[in-house]
Amino acid sequence: MIKSLDLYKQYESIKTEVDNAIQSVIRDSSFIGGKYVTQFENNFANYQQADYCIGVANGTDALEIAIEVLELPKDSEIIVPGNSFISSAEAVTRSGHRVVFCDANQDDYTINIADVNKRITDKTSAIIAVHLYGHPCDMGSLVDLARKNNLKIIEDCAQAHGTEYRNKRVGTIGDIGTFSFYPGKNLGAYGDGGAIVTNDPELAKKCRMIANHGRIEKYNHEFEGRNSRLDGLQAAILDVKLKYLDNWLNQRIEIANIYKQELKNEVNIIAPVQQNWTRHTYHLYVIRTSKRDELKKHLANNNIQTGIHYPIALPKLKAYEYTNQADENMFINRVDKELLSLPMGEHLSVEDAYQICSKLRNFFGRIANSFSNPRD
Known about the structure:
single chain, seven-stranded mixed sheet, 13 helices
């Protein structure tokens, strides 16, 4: 079986270090806050080229806190790409704002700048730039657009640990950046976890206070906040994994390059594009094909797991019927029936990648033969 993701295999490769880290947290009873959280925050900030990192309970909380700390006008509009996980949108509405969906690019699936520009109104206050599948948004163009219209940019980096835009790590190119450490991410915890990064000291301080009941000092609550803290166990585990992240990302890139080379002449699929100004970290390798469901079944029959990210575009979800955007003529509303995520991760061998490509080509070869040799 070639798994789409194999977290246990990853654990086995670093088992001793992870087990020792967990034991250290338990020995020191450093479960909430403390040195393990501080150490990881500092190391992750350095890794992402940020001045400040604030660990929080999960990626969704990170987005909500980021929106709150920017103090956007009440009931304002925030533009969100429609091809993303629901967290990118629900954080907007749960923060008291209105989500406006925009289209994504057809080649790299990130936010479509031209479509964003068309959706800006006098009520627009911010843009959420989702660095999807490990590919960064065109941040230069997006920053120019935001400055022109006096808008804030929140970078949703949940799928983009280590991703770079023109040699700059994502997260601090806009006003504030958010990360998820959900177990399946390129850098994943053994439970929920998240982080906020910024170069603004005042934003960093306010984020930390919001996440910790509106306080810095114990019992000295300056305002009402919330409880959203990265715990010591997850921080210690993440700190171990962070040392290996670049090696794991390089393995993902190697697998992606094999996919790219082996499938380049397959006319029945559309492979993802990597822009020349990016370090694509391939959280996912997503292809498009009109035979998506049949191909998925064929690969499963050959013991190859795949995924679908995402099967329903956000504007088409019942949760967002009120936006009346489900029938808009957007790429995202058409493509959700064609997306298929091939296995991706450091657990894959080069041989696995070649086998996946072989089985994929075999599927389309059989289809071609059935058309060239129809039954009487």
